[in-house]
Amino acid sequence: NAGVMQNPRHLVRRRGQEARLRCSPMKGHSHVYWYRQLPEEGLKFMVYLQKENIIDESGMPKERFSAEFPKEGPSILRIQQVVRGDSAAYFCASSPRTSGSDEQFFGPGTRLTVL
Amino acid sequence: AQSVTQLDSQVPVFEEAPVELRCNYSSSVSVYLFWYVQYPNQGLQLLLKYLSGSTLVKGINGFEAEFNKSQTSFHLRKPSVHISDTAEYFCAVRLLTGGYQKVTFGTGTKLQVIP
Question: Collapsing DSSP states into helix, strand and coil, what is residue B74?
Fold first, then answer.
């Protein structure tokens, strides 16, 4: 049973370009979470999605960031017109349910570098 | 809203010595508590979790944590550390209520095991 998969593992973009980060949850998991880890900081929640629905995007910046989890295919975190401050590690996690004691299973992350 | 505090950003310890990584939380309701470990350039992996019952929780790799409700703490301990324990450790909390509840992470503690 494959774990949470993220690609690419490393992504380099120039200022103003777009970054697309992909996350495939574990088999049987329908809940996906995105987190951002800035250098020397902990994980900050960004968004929680179920298939075709954004449930909680309270941690997502209002501009340039968007996320989706289509009926088919991986979840996508999209950052438009990237700036240097977007350089960070972006982690995806999945769970079978969203409440209670269920742990979240994390992917290896995508490390975004904005030049 | 809940919050998690990890006061120690870095903890150096000699190999085979004991270690305690501190975690305090604040919440107006009961919570689930988690410890995750992050090895360099990897995602987070669950070490252990406290749901209910015995306040002493045993996890993987010889780690354990003790839930102290009166002190709102969930400190992580290991009696004898190995070089391979060098990693960053995150404490996390989720509210013990029904429905969707966000997981809140602490800022992390970097454990450096010195040979």
Answer: strand
Say whether residue A32 is in contact with chain B using an 8 A CB cutoff. Answer: no
In this predicted structure, what is the pLDDT of residue B88? 94
CB atoms within 10 A of CB A68: 16
Position A42 scores a pLDDT of: 80
How many other CB atoms sit within 10 Å of the CB of residue B4?
23
- The backbone region for B61, taken as left when phi is positive above 0, alpha when psi lies in -120 to 50, beta otherwise, is left
Max Cα distance, chain B (Å): 46
Q: Is the dihedral of CA B80, B85, B91, B92 positive or negative?
A: negative
pLDDT digits (tens, 9 = 90+) for A57-100: 999 999 999 999 999 999 999 999 999 999 999 999 998 876 55
Whether residue B78 is predicted with pLDDT greater than 60 in this model: the reply is yes
Q: Please give the structure tokens belonging to residue B100.
A: 């969707």
Q: A62: helix, coil or strand?
A: coil
Structural tokens at position B101? 């509840």
Q: Which of B34, B45, B98 sits opposite A99 (nearest CB)?
A: B98
Cβ-defined contact of A98 to B32 (cutoff 8 Å): no
Cβ separation A109–B32 shorter than 8 A: no
